[in-house]
């Protein structure tokens, strides 16, 4: 027995020593990939010495003798801090995620290939202007130079993720940056997804289904089933299967994911310091690392500082010495789905405008880690590529014997959008900026501008030209063989939509609203949020940087202020006081809290939680009876729908009556039942004491690492969790997951915020949602996350001496020739 015990002790000690050795070895290789910001490199690809000055927050300030060397150094800096993210974004655009992630990424790869993101990006390289072509080539050379340094210096493969997801890193090419911009454009628009939803609503309830999503003043359109006489189109019998959130974010960006932003500005006559102010906060899915990266580059035209996206060699939101700009996804209707009839007996032909026509076809191979390769056939019609039925719920709306094709402004191979964005940061005033934006195709943007002479906004991008006789005006899929439904071309609108001299000296936007110009669509930005933003901007005659910061971080829900008086109109103070502990008393206590609430979605208060749960339960109760399983796919709250019902707009109060029951229910009864349902759910989670509930207990940001975030043990290291204020309709937008046990999980928001003060440019402030580094062991991985949560910022100056004085590291690049 003694001998056995001794051997067990020896084996235990040996296992402990081996485990410690393995952990130490993993730690060693992981920290080898942390860059040394004080290093010097002799490197090819630059003509003169370059400095990369890193500030306390790891923001690179890049100084070189010429623009080419500066773009080279930006590519190197991006690769130093975000190499894995850059390669994943490139893979997402190429449709090659399954090569590292396995079969779960196949749907994303399939869609990227069918959209032709990388194919069109390669074709667009030759379309760029000479200055942009040089910037793209220099940036690619800089990325490749760092990859060479990683290989030469055994620097842990450049990022620890590469040890878990083995990956050869091909050299960066200019087409890779263009492809990431294409992916950004595809991710920013939700029109394809919204068309499918409108069609499903029409099938579920032809008479009233569009009430859920219809914009004020939107013209009527035919029932979806009527568009395809003779073809069977059955209503949905089940909800659309959802990929988990980690799979959705496997590539950081995903087509039809959606994006938004606030952009607002005040001219010098409306500011306390007599200099223009501009604020911008692009809103995307929250990831770790975040999508955005702060940088300053010194070009021949002057210094430029602000937010970049690794992989793209441009300051997308920021300022130079004379001009500030911010970008807002315009949310125009830039996509149309067409239903194409396949020729009976010949799956290779479809019904075109002039008869049966051959599909244009090609074959591609999807390589899959740990599984067999997949062969897919790409088919294309005159209207665009065929999108298979398993994407975005298309199977629920396709008539028998038909397929769906997509027309999208971004599906072009002559796209000069990168030239427009690089030209924008070189512009010295609003008019030059607006002129540069004439080349923008996708993503369509509302660009807010400010200079010493004033402020303005430009809607820039390609807009489809639709025939007024189009059967659905692009709101639902339409028969693709009818000439009236087809696009009559696309048009750049920047020159037609530039408002460079607003009457009152202020501008504000979060997307196209109630468009008067044909073709822009009907699904613009959140009108409740825009009304609140305009109130904040117009309620003051004189603004300061602090008032702009306060507006950017405003957490008052205008939707709550609009809905609660309507929904609860007949509920407040209408019953006798109930006994403690009863459902009636809980309802009365909840209503008393909401009656005195100002609508602030504060993470420390119970009222936002009660409101959000009530409205979600109410929307479900209104829709379930009429829409059936489709209700489960209404993952966002539609405040306009609830307002329409409770104002009885166009007889919409009919939604309150439950068809399956004999009595005729009133909207007041439905509101009471929904509130009781919400309170029952919340009390089961948090107990009966309403005053102890907190919005932040369910509304917290989960900034997810797409590759490692679901790995046991690793998730605690790489994911960032923190409770957050705000909501889906607040100016400080904090979007919800919308399904699962916690539908209020905060999964999207302003991953970058900037406020630019042209009266004192060096007092401009910036912040991103995580940190500059993508390395989980770096102190810069999450050092700005808490600032971002609290609505705080860091300062960034264009003064070279200030940058050097605050430097925590200076990387010196020397050309090989010296």
What does this 3D model show about the protein?
This is Penicillin acylase family protein. Belongs to the peptidase S45 family. InterPro entries: Ntn_hydrolases_N, Pen/GL7ACA/AHL_acylase, Penicillin_amidase_A-knob, Penicillin_amidase_dom1, Penicillin_amidase_N_B-knob, S45. The chain has 818 residues and is of the alpha+beta class. 33% of the residues lie in helices and 19% in strands. The protein has a domain at 558-598 and 606-693: Orthogonal Bundle (Penicillin amidase (Acylase) alpha subunit, N-terminal domain), CATH 1.10.1400. α5 (117-124) crosses α8 (174-188) and α11 runs antiparallel to α12 (430-436). It is globular.
Brief descriptors of the model:
818 residues, alpha+beta, Penicillin amidase (Acylase) alpha subunit, N-terminal domain, six-stranded antiparallel beta sheet, 33% helix
Structural class assignment: alpha+beta
CATH topology of the domain at 558-598 and 606-693: Penicillin amidase (Acylase) alpha subunit, N-terminal domain
Q: Given the structure, what is the number of helices?
A: 23
Query: In CATH terms, what is the architecture of the domain at 558-598 and 606-693?
Result: Orthogonal Bundle
Beta-strand share of residues = 15-25%
The portion of residues assigned to helices is 25-40%
Rg result: 27 Å
CATH class of the domain at 558-598 and 606-693: Mainly Alpha
Question: Can you give me a brief rundown of this structure?
Answer:
The protein has 818 residues and is of the alpha+beta class.
Lay out the secondary structure:
Layout: H1 2-32, E1 40-43, E2 50-54, E3 60-63, H2 67-94, H3 98-101, H4 106-115, H5 117-124, H6 130-152, H7 161-164, H8 174-188, H9 191-204, H10 245-248, E4 263-266, E5 277-280, E6 283-285, E7 293-299, E8 302-308, E9 317-320, E10 323-329, E11 335-341, E12 349-352, E13 355-358, E14 360-366, E15 374-381, E16 384-387, E17 402-408, H11 417-426, H12 430-436, E18 445-451, E19 454-460, E20 462-466, E21 478-479, E22 487-492, H13 494-497, E23 506-509, H14 527-538, H15 545-552, H16 558-567, H17 583-595, H18 607-627, H19 639-647, H20 667-686, E24 700-703, H21 715-718, E25 720-723, E26 734-736, E27 746-750, E28 752-757, E29 765-768, H22 785-790, E30 794-795, H23 800-805, E31 809-815
Parallel strand pairs: 1-31, 3-7, 11-21
Antiparallel strand pairs: 2-3, 2-31, 4-5, 4-23, 5-28, 6-27, 7-8, 8-9, 9-10, 10-18, 11-17, 12-13, 14-15, 15-16, 16-17, 18-19, 20-22, 24-25, 26-27, 28-29, 29-30
Helix pairs in contact: 2-6, 2-8, 5-8, 11-12, 16-19, 17-20, 18-20
